[in-house]
Protein backbone atom coordinates (compact mmCIF):
# COMPACT_ATOMS: atom_id res chain seq x y z
CA UNK A 1 0.00 0.00 0.00
CA UNK A 2 1.26 3.47 -0.87
CA UNK A 3 1.78 5.76 2.08
CA UNK A 4 0.49 9.27 1.69
CA UNK A 5 3.07 10.81 3.99
CA UNK A 6 2.57 13.59 6.49
CA UNK A 7 2.22 16.25 3.84
CA UNK A 8 -0.37 14.37 1.76
CA UNK A 9 1.93 14.34 -1.26
CA UNK A 10 -0.09 11.58 -2.93
CA UNK A 11 -3.18 13.81 -2.91
CA UNK A 12 -1.20 16.70 -4.37
CA UNK A 13 0.29 14.38 -6.98
CA UNK A 14 -3.17 13.11 -7.92
CA UNK A 15 -4.46 16.68 -8.23
CA UNK A 16 -1.35 17.72 -10.15
CA UNK A 17 -1.84 14.93 -12.69
CA UNK A 18 -5.50 15.76 -13.27
CA UNK A 19 -4.94 17.44 -16.66
CA UNK A 20 -2.76 14.59 -17.87
CA UNK A 21 -5.27 12.02 -16.62
CA UNK A 22 -8.12 13.64 -18.58
CA UNK A 23 -6.11 13.76 -21.82
CA UNK A 24 -4.76 10.24 -21.44
CA UNK A 25 -7.89 8.43 -20.40
CA UNK A 26 -10.85 10.29 -21.94
CA UNK A 27 -10.39 8.63 -25.34
CA UNK A 28 -9.29 5.32 -23.88
CA UNK A 29 -12.20 5.06 -21.42
CA UNK A 30 -14.66 5.94 -24.18
CA UNK A 31 -13.05 3.31 -26.36
CA UNK A 32 -13.31 0.42 -23.90
CA UNK A 33 -16.65 1.37 -22.34
CA UNK A 34 -19.36 -1.26 -22.65
CA UNK A 35 -19.25 -4.63 -24.35
CA UNK A 36 -16.52 -4.23 -26.93
CA UNK A 37 -15.01 -7.11 -28.84
CA UNK A 38 -11.22 -7.33 -28.84
CA UNK A 39 -10.27 -7.34 -32.50
CA UNK A 40 -7.96 -5.55 -34.93
CA UNK A 41 -10.30 -2.57 -35.15
CA UNK A 42 -10.07 -2.08 -31.38
CA UNK A 43 -6.28 -2.44 -31.54
CA UNK A 44 -6.11 0.27 -34.20
CA UNK A 45 -8.35 2.65 -32.23
CA UNK A 46 -6.41 2.08 -29.02
CA UNK A 47 -3.10 2.71 -30.77
CA UNK A 48 -4.43 5.99 -32.20
CA UNK A 49 -5.69 7.07 -28.77
CA UNK A 50 -2.28 6.43 -27.21
CA UNK A 51 -0.50 8.37 -29.92
CA UNK A 52 -2.90 11.30 -29.39
CA UNK A 53 -2.11 11.11 -25.69
CA UNK A 54 1.53 11.84 -26.58
CA UNK A 55 3.01 8.94 -24.59
CA UNK A 56 5.49 8.10 -27.34
CA UNK A 57 6.09 5.20 -29.73
CA UNK A 58 8.10 3.00 -27.34
CA UNK A 59 5.34 2.82 -24.75
CA UNK A 60 2.63 2.44 -27.41
CA UNK A 61 4.44 -0.45 -29.09
CA UNK A 62 5.19 -2.19 -25.81
CA UNK A 63 1.58 -1.91 -24.69
CA UNK A 64 0.18 -3.16 -27.99
CA UNK A 65 2.61 -6.10 -28.02
CA UNK A 66 1.59 -7.03 -24.48
CA UNK A 67 -2.12 -6.84 -25.31
CA UNK A 68 -1.75 -8.96 -28.46
CA UNK A 69 0.29 -11.51 -26.53
CA UNK A 70 -2.30 -11.80 -23.77
CA UNK A 71 -5.13 -12.13 -26.28
CA UNK A 72 -3.20 -14.86 -28.07
CA UNK A 73 -2.74 -16.74 -24.78
CA UNK A 74 -6.46 -16.21 -24.00
CA UNK A 75 -5.60 -14.17 -20.87
CA UNK A 76 -7.46 -11.12 -22.11
CA UNK A 77 -11.01 -11.58 -23.37
CA UNK A 78 -12.76 -8.34 -22.39
CA UNK A 79 -12.06 -4.80 -23.51
CA UNK A 80 -12.64 -3.42 -20.00
CA UNK A 81 -9.55 -5.31 -18.80
CA UNK A 82 -7.39 -3.18 -21.08
CA UNK A 83 -7.18 -0.49 -18.39
CA UNK A 84 -5.41 -2.94 -16.09
CA UNK A 85 -2.99 -3.94 -18.86
CA UNK A 86 -2.33 -0.26 -19.52
CA UNK A 87 -1.64 0.35 -15.83
CA UNK A 88 0.62 -2.69 -15.45
CA UNK A 89 2.60 -1.85 -18.60
CA UNK A 90 3.04 1.76 -17.53
CA UNK A 91 4.25 0.68 -14.09
CA UNK A 92 6.73 -1.81 -15.58
CA UNK A 93 8.24 0.80 -17.91
CA UNK A 94 8.48 3.48 -15.24
CA UNK A 95 9.95 1.12 -12.66
CA UNK A 96 12.91 0.70 -15.00
CA UNK A 97 13.75 4.38 -14.40
CA UNK A 98 12.90 4.55 -10.70
CA UNK A 99 16.17 5.35 -8.95
CA UNK A 100 15.99 7.88 -6.10
CA UNK A 101 19.19 9.79 -5.48
CA UNK A 102 21.24 8.35 -2.62
CA UNK A 103 23.82 10.52 -0.83
CA UNK A 104 26.78 8.40 0.42
CA UNK A 105 27.36 8.34 4.20
CA UNK A 106 30.67 10.21 4.01
CA UNK A 107 32.53 12.74 1.88
CA UNK A 108 31.36 15.68 -0.20
CA UNK A 109 28.72 14.80 -2.81
CA UNK A 110 28.49 17.17 -5.77
CA UNK A 111 25.39 17.72 -7.90
CA UNK A 112 25.61 19.77 -11.08
CA UNK A 113 22.11 20.93 -12.06
CA UNK A 114 21.59 21.53 -15.79
CA UNK A 115 18.73 22.39 -18.15
CA UNK A 116 17.41 25.18 -20.34
CA UNK A 117 16.28 28.47 -18.83
CA UNK A 118 12.78 28.40 -17.43
CA UNK A 119 12.62 24.72 -16.50
CA UNK A 120 12.85 25.42 -12.79
CA UNK A 121 16.53 24.73 -12.09
CA UNK A 122 16.88 27.38 -9.41
CA UNK A 123 13.71 26.48 -7.53
CA UNK A 124 14.66 22.80 -7.74
CA UNK A 125 18.03 23.59 -6.16
CA UNK A 126 16.29 25.46 -3.34
CA UNK A 127 13.91 22.55 -2.71
CA UNK A 128 16.73 19.99 -2.79
CA UNK A 129 18.78 22.10 -0.38
CA UNK A 130 15.78 22.21 1.96
CA UNK A 131 15.32 18.43 1.78
CA UNK A 132 18.98 17.65 2.35
CA UNK A 133 19.09 20.03 5.31
CA UNK A 134 16.06 18.28 6.80
CA UNK A 135 17.96 15.02 6.47
CA UNK A 136 20.73 16.48 8.63
CA UNK A 137 23.20 17.18 5.81
CA UNK A 138 25.26 20.34 5.45
CA UNK A 139 24.63 21.99 2.08
CA UNK A 140 26.33 24.66 -0.01
CA UNK A 141 25.07 26.21 -3.25
CA UNK A 142 27.25 27.50 -6.10
CA UNK A 143 25.77 30.29 -8.25
CA UNK A 144 27.51 29.31 -11.50
CA UNK A 145 24.88 30.87 -13.78
CA UNK A 146 26.83 34.12 -13.79
CA UNK A 147 25.34 35.60 -16.94
CA UNK A 148 21.98 36.58 -15.48
CA UNK A 149 21.87 38.78 -12.38
CA UNK A 150 18.29 37.62 -11.83
CA UNK A 151 19.43 34.00 -11.65
CA UNK A 152 21.91 34.76 -8.87
CA UNK A 153 19.36 36.83 -6.95
CA UNK A 154 16.69 34.15 -7.26
CA UNK A 155 19.15 31.50 -6.09
CA UNK A 156 20.03 33.59 -3.04
CA UNK A 157 16.32 33.93 -2.17
CA UNK A 158 15.82 30.16 -2.30
CA UNK A 159 19.05 29.55 -0.38
CA UNK A 160 17.83 31.84 2.42
CA UNK A 161 14.55 29.91 2.55
CA UNK A 162 16.51 26.68 2.85
CA UNK A 163 19.03 28.26 5.28
CA UNK A 164 22.11 27.31 3.26
CA UNK A 165 25.09 29.44 2.15
CA UNK A 166 25.70 30.57 -1.43
CA UNK A 167 29.06 30.98 -3.15
CA UNK A 168 28.86 33.64 -5.86
CA UNK A 169 30.98 36.07 -7.84
CA UNK A 170 30.22 39.20 -9.82
CA UNK A 171 28.03 39.09 -12.91
CA UNK A 172 29.73 37.59 -16.01
CA UNK A 173 32.43 35.91 -13.93
CA UNK A 174 33.82 32.59 -15.14
CA UNK A 175 31.36 29.87 -13.98
CA UNK A 176 34.25 27.46 -13.46
CA UNK A 177 35.83 29.93 -11.03
CA UNK A 178 32.64 29.98 -8.98
CA UNK A 179 32.64 26.19 -8.89
CA UNK A 180 36.29 26.17 -7.82
CA UNK A 181 35.57 28.57 -4.94
CA UNK A 182 32.54 26.53 -3.87
CA UNK A 183 34.45 23.26 -3.77
CA UNK A 184 37.33 24.84 -1.88
CA UNK A 185 34.85 26.15 0.69
CA UNK A 186 33.08 22.79 0.86
CA UNK A 187 36.33 20.90 1.50
CA UNK A 188 37.41 23.39 4.16
CA UNK A 189 34.09 23.10 5.98
CA UNK A 190 33.48 19.38 5.36
CA UNK A 191 30.23 20.21 3.57
CA UNK A 192 28.27 17.09 2.64
CA UNK A 193 26.38 18.29 -0.45
CA UNK A 194 27.29 20.92 -3.05
CA UNK A 195 24.57 22.00 -5.48
CA UNK A 196 25.84 23.79 -8.60
CA UNK A 197 23.45 26.01 -10.57
CA UNK A 198 24.36 26.39 -14.26
CA UNK A 199 23.29 28.52 -17.21
CA UNK A 200 20.80 27.26 -19.77
CA UNK A 201 21.13 29.46 -22.80
CA UNK A 202 20.33 27.15 -25.69
CA UNK A 203 20.77 29.87 -28.31
CA UNK A 204 24.50 29.71 -27.53
CA UNK A 205 24.59 25.92 -27.39
CA UNK A 206 28.27 25.46 -28.24
CA UNK A 207 29.46 27.96 -25.62
CA UNK A 208 27.08 26.55 -23.02
CA UNK A 209 28.27 22.99 -23.51
CA UNK A 210 31.92 24.04 -23.39
CA UNK A 211 31.23 25.87 -20.12
CA UNK A 212 29.61 22.76 -18.65
CA UNK A 213 32.55 20.61 -19.71
CA UNK A 214 35.00 23.08 -18.17
CA UNK A 215 33.05 23.02 -14.90
CA UNK A 216 33.12 19.23 -14.94
CA UNK A 217 36.90 19.25 -15.36
CA UNK A 218 37.36 21.67 -12.45
CA UNK A 219 35.08 19.58 -10.24
CA UNK A 220 36.90 16.36 -11.13
CA UNK A 221 40.26 17.94 -10.22
CA UNK A 222 39.05 19.18 -6.85
CA UNK A 223 37.01 16.17 -5.63
CA UNK A 224 37.42 12.59 -6.78
CA UNK A 225 34.52 11.41 -8.93
CA UNK A 226 32.91 14.84 -9.17
CA UNK A 227 30.40 15.72 -10.40
CA UNK A 228 28.81 12.72 -8.73
CA UNK A 229 25.41 13.57 -10.20
CA UNK A 230 24.48 15.62 -13.26
CA UNK A 231 20.80 16.34 -12.71
CA UNK A 232 18.78 17.51 -15.71
CA UNK A 233 15.73 19.59 -14.79
CA UNK A 234 12.99 19.15 -17.39
CA UNK A 235 9.76 21.14 -17.63
CA UNK A 236 6.85 18.74 -18.18
CA UNK A 237 4.84 21.48 -19.92
CA UNK A 238 7.23 21.35 -22.89
CA UNK A 239 6.12 17.79 -23.65
CA UNK A 240 7.98 16.17 -26.53
CA UNK A 241 10.22 19.24 -27.08
CA UNK A 242 11.84 18.34 -23.78
CA UNK A 243 12.98 15.00 -25.20
CA UNK A 244 15.26 16.67 -27.78
CA UNK A 245 16.70 18.91 -25.07
CA UNK A 246 17.28 15.91 -22.81
CA UNK A 247 19.09 14.00 -25.56
CA UNK A 248 21.39 16.95 -26.16
CA UNK A 249 22.24 17.36 -22.46
CA UNK A 250 22.73 13.60 -22.10
CA UNK A 251 25.25 13.55 -24.95
CA UNK A 252 27.04 16.77 -24.09
CA UNK A 253 26.87 17.01 -20.31
CA UNK A 254 26.74 13.37 -19.20
CA UNK A 255 23.34 13.54 -17.48
CA UNK A 256 22.92 10.88 -14.79
CA UNK A 257 19.44 11.73 -13.52
CA UNK A 258 16.28 13.68 -14.35
CA UNK A 259 13.99 15.92 -12.30
CA UNK A 260 10.62 16.46 -14.03
CA UNK A 261 9.01 19.70 -12.86
CA UNK A 262 5.65 21.49 -13.32
CA UNK A 263 3.57 18.33 -13.66
CA UNK A 264 0.72 20.25 -12.02
CA UNK A 265 0.52 22.76 -14.87
CA UNK A 266 0.32 20.48 -17.89
CA UNK A 267 -1.71 17.89 -19.74
CA UNK A 268 1.57 16.55 -21.15
CA UNK A 269 2.61 14.48 -18.14
CA UNK A 270 2.64 11.45 -20.44
CA UNK A 271 6.08 12.66 -21.52
CA UNK A 272 7.41 10.75 -18.51
CA UNK A 273 6.75 7.54 -20.46
CA UNK A 274 8.86 8.79 -23.35
CA UNK A 275 11.61 9.74 -20.91
CA UNK A 276 11.55 6.24 -19.45
CA UNK A 277 11.17 4.43 -22.76
CA UNK A 278 13.54 6.41 -24.96
CA UNK A 279 16.14 8.13 -22.78
CA UNK A 280 16.73 5.37 -20.22
CA UNK A 281 17.95 7.94 -17.68
CA UNK A 282 16.98 7.49 -14.01
CA UNK A 283 14.10 9.73 -12.96
CA UNK A 284 15.19 11.07 -9.58
CA UNK A 285 12.50 13.60 -8.68
CA UNK A 286 9.13 14.96 -9.77
CA UNK A 287 7.62 18.33 -8.90
CA UNK A 288 3.92 19.19 -8.62
CA UNK A 289 3.92 22.69 -7.13
CA UNK A 290 5.81 25.69 -5.84
CA UNK A 291 6.16 24.86 -2.15
CA UNK A 292 9.32 23.40 -0.62
CA UNK A 293 7.45 20.13 -0.05
CA UNK A 294 6.25 19.73 -3.65
CA UNK A 295 9.42 18.08 -4.96
CA UNK A 296 9.68 14.40 -4.12
CA UNK A 297 11.69 11.32 -5.13
CA UNK A 298 10.03 9.60 -8.08
CA UNK A 299 8.18 6.38 -7.21
CA UNK A 300 6.69 4.55 -10.20
CA UNK A 301 3.82 2.84 -8.38
CA UNK A 302 2.82 6.04 -6.57
CA UNK A 303 2.87 7.98 -9.83
CA UNK A 304 0.77 5.41 -11.72
CA UNK A 305 -1.71 5.07 -8.85
CA UNK A 306 -2.19 8.85 -8.86
CA UNK A 307 -2.54 8.92 -12.64
CA UNK A 308 -5.18 6.15 -12.68
CA UNK A 309 -7.13 7.37 -9.64
CA UNK A 310 -10.76 8.03 -10.46
CA UNK A 311 -12.70 10.96 -9.04
CA UNK A 312 -13.50 10.37 -5.37
CA UNK A 313 -10.71 7.82 -4.85
- Main beta sheet strand tally, sense and closure: 8 strands, mixed
Give the class from helix and strand content and strand pairing: alpha/beta
- The percentage of residues in β strands lies in 5-15%
Give the overall average pLDDT: 88
Report strand order across the widest sheet. 3-2-4-1-5-6-7-8
Question: Counting H and I runs of at least 4 residues, what is the number of helices?
Answer: 12
Provide the low-confidence segments as ranges. 1-7
- Based on CA inertia axes, which overall geometry fits? elongated
- Gyration radius over CA: 21 Å
- The portion of residues assigned to helices is 40-55%
H/E element sequence: HHHHHEHEHEHEHEHEHEEH
Number of strands: 8
Give the terminus-to-terminus CA distance. Answer: 14 Å
Describe, in plain words, how this protein is organized in 3D.
This protein is an alpha/beta fold and 313 residues long. The protein is 50% helix and 12% strand. It is built from twelve helices and eight strands. The protein has an eight-stranded mixed sheet, sandwiched between helices. β2, α7 (149-162) and β3 form a beta-alpha-beta unit. The longest helix has 18 residues, at 205-222. It is elongated and about 70 Å long. The chain starts with 8 loop residues before the first helix and ends in a 5-residue tail after the last helix. The relative contact order is 0.18.
Key descriptive features of the protein:
8 strands, 12 helices, alpha/beta, 313 residues, eight-stranded mixed β-sheet
Amino acid sequence: MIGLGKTGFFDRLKKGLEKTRKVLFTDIDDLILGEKKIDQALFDELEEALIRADVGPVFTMELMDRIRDQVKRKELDRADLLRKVLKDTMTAILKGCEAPLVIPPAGTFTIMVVGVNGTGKTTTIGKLAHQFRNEGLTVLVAAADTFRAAAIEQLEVWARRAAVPVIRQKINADPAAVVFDALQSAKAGATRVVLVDTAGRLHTKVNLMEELKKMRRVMAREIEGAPHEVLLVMDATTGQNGIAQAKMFKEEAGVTGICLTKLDGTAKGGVILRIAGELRIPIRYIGVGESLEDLRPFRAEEFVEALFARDGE
